[in-house]
Model the fold of this input.
Amino acid sequence: MKPIDPSEITPEHLYLSRRTFITGAAAVAAGAVLAGCGLGESKTGTPGVTTGTPGSVSSTLDELGDPLTSYQDVTTYNNFYEFTTNKDGVATAAKDFTFTPWTVDVGGLAAKPRTFAIEELTGLFPDEERVYRLRCVEAWSMVIPWLGFPLQKLLEMVEPTPEAHYVRFETLLDPEQMPGQKDTLSFSWPYVEGLRLDEAMNDLTLLSTGLYGKRLLPQNGAPLRLVVPWKYGFKSIKSIVRIQLVAEQPVSFWMAAGPDEYGFYANVNPNVDHPRWSQKSERRIGEAGRRDTLMFNGYEEEVAALYAGMDLSKDF
Amino acid sequence: MDAARPAATVGADRLGVATRTAAHVWALAPLGILAYVTLADRLSANPIEDVTRRLGRDALLMLTASLAVTPLVWLVERATANRSSRAAGAGGHLASAMRPVRRTFGLYAFFYASLHLFVFTVVDYGLDPVLLADAVLKKRYALVGLAAFVILTALAVTSTRGWRRRLRTMWSALHRLVYLAAVLVVLHNLWAAKALTAGRLAWAALIVGLLLIRVPLWAYDRQNSSADTGRP
Done:
């Protein structure tokens, strides 16, 4: 990653004033121009939702010089259909989620398949902090300081056999704890995701156990989730219980829900629209305007080679 | 109060005023709620998207209410028609009080749809022509939404008594386009979402139901037209 020039750092007062602008713009739009009624205060978060305070982070910017999305926003604006399809309702809906004990079954086409307790994983693979952009397929984005370890390290430990070409991930299936899983009309559960083996072995691909210097909260995919920063957010599967090495390309949750709309690769790509909406621009959470979406979410240098010779409009 | 008028007419007037007032209060409530959540800083972390979504939902709610008026009026009239003359009179008053709120809710649907479109084009996209063209022209959810808005605009403009008189029989034909607008809005709501969730499908079913229920009501009225003086 490139070092950050200090001049690229957005001063905090400018960053906060964007938030002020958003609140103001929304109020004007609503025709609710009431002078002096709370405009200009920075956001203090969704009332009734306590997500605590962030731990320490080693960097407050990503490698492009953009500031971290606030801990409050990262922990209260989530897509996690297992709990609710309402993004600002996930934190509340997931607050009683119990994830101890937790084991992760790692196997399939592997010479040394193994079931890990979550504590074993964090003991075997020390935390690394990675500041990544997260670009949702819904055209919003965040900058998040993750804690975790490269998936590569775990896969090397179980020794994939030569027949293994893909990795298949599965979320916990527990409709009692995850009421969204009772909607079997719209979706087929559990949530499944997949990567090609070389994508899984890329150094950027992270298994995350925390963010902002703390362990993951339920709404962010506790206790273990995937983070694939050059792909749309839905590839970064949450609350993982199973990781399998497989020969065939897995069918993901979203591929099953809409085969014409969600492909296996789901690489962030401003030139390939979602069939129903544009992917050219995005809104960074905390900002008022829109930003241009970057090829591979700004990680072109690290991952473009994985897709050499492929037609990305076909393999979307 | 006009002492020369019969008591029943005064009662009917009061009923009309009460119904209209209730309709306005109910239709303005979403705006009040939106103002409150905005000023109390209770919007989501993506506030522009949140406001856009809320305004769209409010427009849909008003359109649904407007479409529900005619079947409800029909029910009130038919339920009281063959009873005592007193019941029929009361039913007639209630039906007369309800009929004008169809227009009220229709205008509120246009109002919320205008704010919805304003936030999307101006606040969200800053009227950026390149981004807007890309976001709208190729996208079916945006195109059907825009088409519905054009219809609602035409209906709002011609909703006055003057336009009704000027357009004569054309007026009814024009205002039947609200059914087309409703179908377009349902498609807009389904296509704009990442997935077809139960809630969106249920709302679509409600609107389609309100459109389809008109067919048997219309057939019933045609069959009974000789014995009945009620409006179609």
Observations:
- Residues 51-307 of chain A form a domain with the Sulfite Oxidase; Chain A, domain 2 fold (CATH 3.90.420.10).
- Residues 10-48 of chain A have pLDDT under 50 and may be disordered.
